[in-house]
Design goal:
The complex is a heterodimer.
Chain A (H helix, E strand, L loop, with lengths): L2 H14 L4 H18 L3 H5 L2 H8 L9 H26 L9 H23 L18 H23 L1
Helix pairs in contact in A: 1-2, 1-4, 5-6, 5-7
Chain B lengths: L7 H19 L4 E2 H10 L7 H13 L3 E6 L7 E6 L1 H27 L4
Helix pairs in contact in B: 1-3, 1-4
The chains are: A mainly alpha, B alpha+beta.
Chain lengths: 165, 116
């Protein structure tokens, strides 16, 4: 496994453990520096990315930590509100729980807005401790991707449920 | 960890102090990950992998026993350099004294069947 693929996987694993960006930068730089010295494959030297994330940040918890659960529920709720609001508006029906379609859609937009604002604040910038510059990692907005996927799944579920009725 | 050389549970117990001793020996200039792993191998503790070494170094730093900084690496991989702190040295001295007594007793127990 090449180093940039490994550090990308490691970044996602550390993000899912809610490790602060500053620590992530240090951990990734350590891996890059070590394998440059030894010439080893990063997975041989450090083990699987998920397991190494657990070893290096044992106290951070995994995706079941309260912070991550809030985000997961938030992502799913955003997708649901956007999808259900839009479908109900098009069909001219009420959304779930008898909520008006436009209110549901507005709620979805609000939830999405807050989510984007929180994610873009500073969370996704991993600074390289060696240069002080942001690290260029292909998977940098990992949590955003996870949340967007959840929102997408919620959209599909909302669509399926609506047309099954 | 090189389990063929020593039982892995022994290494787990003694590796942190051994790493701290290697860092202490490097003095104020400090030393870096790969050099620490090489030192431990030369000293006969076996081959220590990065995945074992850095979590221990990070814990030593969190506990205030070592300090670290990056050397070079503006355009390349660079090296994270570790040096022992004053409290790290006190900790190491204390543990070394304890370790001597511990090994004396366990050796006596294993060879003579008693520490008395």
């Amino acid at each position: 496994m090449n180093t940039s693929k490994y550090t990308g996987d490691l970044l996602v694993a550390l993000r899912l453990r809610d490790v602060p960006s500053e620590r992530i930068g240090q951990i990734i730089a350590e891996v890059e520096s070590h394998v440059a010295d030894t010439g080893e494959d990063p997975q041989t030297a450090f083990g699987k990315a998920r397991e190494y994330a657990k070893a290096v940040a044992p106290s951070r918890g995994d995706w079941t930590s309260p912070g991550m659960l809030v985000r997961i529920v938030w992502g799913a709720a955003t997708g649901w509100a956007l999808a259900d609001g839009t479908i109900s508006l098009i069909l001219g029906e009420e959304a779930v729980f008898g909520i008006r379609a436009w209110i549901m859609l507005a709620l979805g937009v609000l939830l999405a807005g807050v989510m984007i604002a929180v994610l873009s604040r500073d969370k996704d910038v991993v600074v390289d401790p060696r240069s002080g510059k942001p690290m260029t990692l292909a998977t940098a907005p990992a949590i955003g991707v996870v949340l967007a996927s959840l929102a997408g799944i919620a959209v599909i579920v909302a669509l399926v449920l609506r047309f099954v009725e | 960890m090189d389990e063929k050389l020593w039982p892995s549970e022994w290494l787990r117990g003694v590796l942190s102090q051994s790493i701290l001793a290697v860092v202490a020996h490097a003095g104020v200039d400090g030393t870096y990950g790969y050099a620490i792993a090489q030192r431990l191998e030369i000293e006969g503790l076996g081959k220590i992998k990065g995945g074992t070494l850095y979590p221990i170094l990070n814990r030593l730093e969190e506990d205030g026993n070592v300090t670290s900084w990056w050397v070079g690496g503006k355009g390349g991989p660079g090296r994270k350099t570790f040096a022992i702190t004053a409290s790290g040295r006190t900790h190491l001295d204390h543990r070394t004294t304890q370790w001597k007594r511990f090994t004396e007793r366990t050796t006596a127990l294993m060879t003579q069947g008693s520490t008395k």
